[in-house]
From TrEMBL:
GO biological process: 2,4,6-trinitrotoluene catabolic process
UniProt-listed InterPro entries: Nitroreductase, Nitroreductase-like, Nitroreductase/BluB
Domain named Nitroreductase: residues: 7-173
Gene3D superfamilies, per database record: NADH Oxidase
Organism: Porcincola intestinalis
Domain of life according to the entry: Bacteria
Any single Gene Ontology cellular-component annotation: cytosol
Keyword annotations: NAD
UniProt keyword annotation of NAD present: yes
Protein name according to UniProt: Nitroreductase
Length: 197
């Protein structure tokens, strides 16, 4: 698969087989993340590769508890509102039972933390597609950067004191009929292009 194909056919996967992802493929995906551009070439992304299912289940429960204690206001962003609503009424989903969650932390006081994280996550998702793996950005932990219990637990897992989470990605083999990611080309309804020739 060439680069354009891998980019254009990347779609989010939200249903996974429990199968582990081969070490070699995880390493290739991390290589793609580490080679991503960063503001000022800072290279301060910190990738926490979580494959321990007990840890994933604990994070999911902690996230659900934190969201269920949040109130919704008129300004609450739609996706955050969705997580709060589901956590209160049941049916909250965090990592879709994927075998791997790669959390991307970065320095809290660094102005390009989100941008650098986004470059790395997009590289990982494209690489995953090229390797016949599914992936999906998981933003839940970013909403919970001010929740002491969750931040403390992430510190226990290896996140540095001055770091916070700016995104995460799940990776695994899709539980689809073909076992391959859905690579449907989707007509895109948004985004705007202005040519100034
Ligand atoms: C910043 C960002 C945050 C996202 N957070 C989540 C999330 O928490 N859970 C989820 O299921 N999908 C999440 N997504 C995936 C989007 O819903 C998805 O990319 C979008 O619907 C387009 O579908 P596609 O990825 O299949 O092209 C996120 C995507 C981005 C870029």
């Amino acid at each position: 698969m060439n680069a354009m194909e891998a980019i254009l056919t990347r779609r989010s996967t939200r249903n996974y087989k429990p199968d582990l992802v081969e070490e070699e493929k995880i390493e290739q995906i991390l290589d793609a993340a580490i080679q991503a551009p960063s503001g000022g070439n800072n290279q301060t992304n910190h990738f926490l590769v979580i494959r321990n299912q007990d840890v994933l289940r604990k994070l999911a429960l902690m996230a659900e508890k934190a969201f269920s204690a949040m109130e919704i206001s008129e300004d609450t962003y739609a996706s955050l509102k969705h997580s709060i609503n589901l956590s209160k009424r049941g049916g909250y989903v965090f990592y879709y039972n994927a075998p791997v969650l790669i959390v991307v932390a970065n320095q809290r006081d660094y102005g390009n933390n989100i941008a650098d994280c986004a470059c790395a996550i997009e590289n990982m998702m494209i690489a995953a597609n090229a390797l016949d793996l599914g992936s999906c950005w998981i933003n839940q932990l970013k909403w919970l950067n001010e929740e002491p219990e969750i931040v403390d637990y992430l510190h226990e897992l290896g996140m540095e004191k001055d770091e916070r989470v700016y995104g995460a990605v799940i990776i695994g083999y899709p539980a689809s009929d073909t076992g391959l990611p859905n690579r449907k080309l989707m007509p895109q309804k948004g985004n705007k292009v202005t040519y100034i020739d």
